[in-house]
Write a structure and sequence with these properties.
Length: 93
């Protein structure tokens, strides 16, 4: 079971780094306008929401290694479903 925990933890780290890469590429592509994200003016509440969203993979990275099996399984399923929905909403249409 320890192998599964390591794989889950590495998957959360990979997700976190993928989001970071996407942000860096978006800035260098020229789509970045200071003080705006996707044409929306950035507020303190929006920054807080982004920070909370980005800390979830960091927390899951740690929790995947430390939680016991049943709790670990459900925490990963719930977080993964949340991020699946978040990514589907963000797909360009």
């Amino acid at each position: 079971m320890e192998d599964v925990k390591i794989i889950l933890s590495a998957s959360w780290a990979a997700l976190m780094l993928t989001y970071l890469l996407g942000d860096v590429l978006r800035i260098y592509s020229g789509d970045y306008k200071e003080g705006k994200i996707g044409g929306i003016q950035v507020t303190q509440n929006l920054w807080l929401g982004i920070a909370v969203l980005m800390v979830i993979p960091v927390v899951m990275f740690f929790l995947s290694l430390t939680l016991n099996n049943p709790v670990n399984r459900w925490a990963n399923i719930i977080a993964a479903i949340f991020f699946l929905g978040f990514n589907l909403i963000g797909l360009p249409g």
